[in-house]
Amino acid sequence: MTAHLRRFIGADREAGSVTVFMAITVVGLLVLIGLVVDGGVKIRAAQHADAVAAEAARAAGQVVALAEVVGHQDVSVDRQGAVNAANAYLAAAGETGRVVVGPDGTTVEVTVTTSSPTAFLSLIGISNLTVTGHGEVTLVHRVSGDQP
Question: Which of 63, 43, 41 is nearest to 51 (CA)?
Fold first, then answer.
Protein backbone atom coordinates (compact mmCIF):
# COMPACT_ATOMS: atom_id res chain seq x y z
CA MET A 1 0.00 0.00 0.00
CA THR A 2 1.08 3.48 -0.61
CA ALA A 3 1.53 5.98 2.19
CA HIS A 4 -1.36 7.99 0.86
CA LEU A 5 -3.71 5.02 1.02
CA ARG A 6 -2.55 4.12 4.57
CA ARG A 7 -3.34 7.64 5.77
CA PHE A 8 -6.76 7.42 4.23
CA ILE A 9 -7.52 4.04 5.88
CA GLY A 10 -6.18 5.28 9.24
CA ALA A 11 -8.44 8.32 9.14
CA ASP A 12 -11.38 6.06 8.40
CA ARG A 13 -11.19 4.45 11.89
CA GLU A 14 -12.66 7.61 13.44
CA ALA A 15 -15.27 8.19 10.77
CA GLY A 16 -18.73 8.39 12.30
CA SER A 17 -17.58 9.30 15.81
CA VAL A 18 -19.13 12.73 15.44
CA THR A 19 -22.40 11.10 14.39
CA VAL A 20 -22.55 9.01 17.58
CA PHE A 21 -21.80 12.10 19.68
CA MET A 22 -24.53 14.08 17.91
CA ALA A 23 -27.06 11.25 18.30
CA ILE A 24 -26.45 11.05 22.05
CA THR A 25 -26.58 14.85 22.38
CA VAL A 26 -29.81 15.14 20.41
CA VAL A 27 -31.48 12.41 22.48
CA GLY A 28 -30.39 14.16 25.67
CA LEU A 29 -31.72 17.49 24.44
CA LEU A 30 -35.06 15.92 23.46
CA VAL A 31 -35.38 14.39 26.93
CA LEU A 32 -34.61 17.76 28.51
CA ILE A 33 -37.12 19.57 26.29
CA GLY A 34 -39.71 16.89 27.08
CA LEU A 35 -39.24 17.35 30.81
CA VAL A 36 -39.59 21.12 30.49
CA VAL A 37 -42.73 20.87 28.34
CA ASP A 38 -44.43 18.23 30.48
CA GLY A 39 -43.33 20.03 33.65
CA GLY A 40 -45.16 23.07 32.32
CA VAL A 41 -48.21 20.92 31.63
CA LYS A 42 -48.18 19.74 35.25
CA ILE A 43 -47.81 23.28 36.61
CA ARG A 44 -50.71 24.55 34.49
CA ALA A 45 -52.87 21.61 35.55
CA ALA A 46 -52.08 22.27 39.23
CA GLN A 47 -52.92 25.97 38.84
CA HIS A 48 -56.20 25.06 37.16
CA ALA A 49 -57.09 22.57 39.91
CA ASP A 50 -56.29 25.15 42.61
CA ALA A 51 -58.37 27.82 40.87
CA VAL A 52 -61.37 25.52 40.40
CA ALA A 53 -61.18 24.33 44.02
CA ALA A 54 -60.94 27.92 45.32
CA GLU A 55 -63.91 29.06 43.26
CA ALA A 56 -65.99 26.05 44.28
CA ALA A 57 -65.19 26.81 47.93
CA ARG A 58 -66.16 30.44 47.37
CA ALA A 59 -69.48 29.38 45.84
CA ALA A 60 -70.12 27.10 48.82
CA GLY A 61 -69.22 29.84 51.30
CA GLN A 62 -71.91 32.09 49.88
CA VAL A 63 -74.69 29.71 50.92
CA VAL A 64 -75.22 31.06 54.42
CA ALA A 65 -77.82 29.70 56.85
CA LEU A 66 -80.38 32.54 56.78
CA ALA A 67 -81.90 31.86 60.21
CA GLU A 68 -78.60 32.64 61.85
CA VAL A 69 -78.09 35.84 59.88
CA VAL A 70 -81.53 37.14 60.83
CA GLY A 71 -81.01 36.19 64.48
CA HIS A 72 -77.54 37.86 64.55
CA GLN A 73 -75.96 34.64 65.71
CA ASP A 74 -72.60 33.39 64.57
CA VAL A 75 -72.86 32.82 60.85
CA SER A 76 -72.37 29.39 59.35
CA VAL A 77 -73.10 27.82 55.99
CA ASP A 78 -76.16 25.82 55.13
CA ARG A 79 -74.32 22.48 54.99
CA GLN A 80 -76.30 20.75 52.26
CA GLY A 81 -76.68 23.96 50.26
CA ALA A 82 -72.94 24.61 50.45
CA VAL A 83 -72.09 21.11 49.27
CA ASN A 84 -74.62 21.40 46.44
CA ALA A 85 -73.26 24.82 45.38
CA ALA A 86 -69.65 23.55 45.35
CA ASN A 87 -70.58 20.41 43.41
CA ALA A 88 -72.58 22.49 40.92
CA TYR A 89 -69.56 24.72 40.34
CA LEU A 90 -67.30 21.70 39.92
CA ALA A 91 -69.72 20.13 37.43
CA ALA A 92 -69.89 23.38 35.44
CA ALA A 93 -66.07 23.45 35.36
CA GLY A 94 -65.97 19.83 34.19
CA GLU A 95 -64.21 18.61 37.32
CA THR A 96 -65.06 16.45 40.30
CA GLY A 97 -63.92 16.87 43.85
CA ARG A 98 -64.54 16.43 47.53
CA VAL A 99 -66.35 19.06 49.60
CA VAL A 100 -65.99 19.12 53.38
CA VAL A 101 -67.83 21.53 55.66
CA GLY A 102 -66.06 22.07 58.97
CA PRO A 103 -67.67 20.91 62.23
CA ASP A 104 -68.73 24.43 63.23
CA GLY A 105 -70.02 25.26 59.74
CA THR A 106 -67.70 28.24 59.28
CA THR A 107 -65.16 26.57 56.98
CA VAL A 108 -65.55 24.83 53.65
CA GLU A 109 -62.71 22.85 52.05
CA VAL A 110 -62.75 21.66 48.46
CA THR A 111 -60.24 19.25 46.97
CA VAL A 112 -60.06 18.70 43.21
CA THR A 113 -58.06 15.92 41.58
CA THR A 114 -57.58 16.15 37.85
CA SER A 115 -55.23 14.81 35.20
CA SER A 116 -53.66 16.31 32.13
CA PRO A 117 -52.28 14.50 29.08
CA THR A 118 -48.53 14.57 28.50
CA ALA A 119 -46.72 15.39 25.30
CA PHE A 120 -43.29 13.81 25.60
CA LEU A 121 -43.62 11.52 28.61
CA SER A 122 -46.21 9.48 26.72
CA LEU A 123 -43.27 8.15 24.70
CA ILE A 124 -42.08 6.27 27.81
CA GLY A 125 -45.56 5.18 28.93
CA ILE A 126 -46.66 8.10 31.12
CA SER A 127 -49.74 9.35 29.31
CA ASN A 128 -51.30 11.48 32.08
CA LEU A 129 -50.10 13.57 35.00
CA THR A 130 -52.44 13.68 38.00
CA VAL A 131 -52.56 16.78 40.18
CA THR A 132 -54.58 17.87 43.21
CA GLY A 133 -55.88 21.36 43.94
CA HIS A 134 -57.14 22.68 47.24
CA GLY A 135 -59.38 25.60 48.16
CA GLU A 136 -60.71 26.71 51.52
CA VAL A 137 -62.97 29.49 52.74
CA THR A 138 -63.69 30.66 56.27
CA LEU A 139 -66.81 32.64 57.11
CA VAL A 140 -66.23 35.71 59.23
CA HIS A 141 -69.21 37.28 60.96
CA ARG A 142 -68.97 40.98 61.54
CA VAL A 143 -71.70 43.28 62.82
CA SER A 144 -71.38 46.88 61.68
CA GLY A 145 -69.45 48.92 64.20
CA ASP A 146 -67.28 45.98 65.29
CA GLN A 147 -63.58 46.45 64.98
CA PRO A 148 -61.71 43.91 62.84
Answer: 43
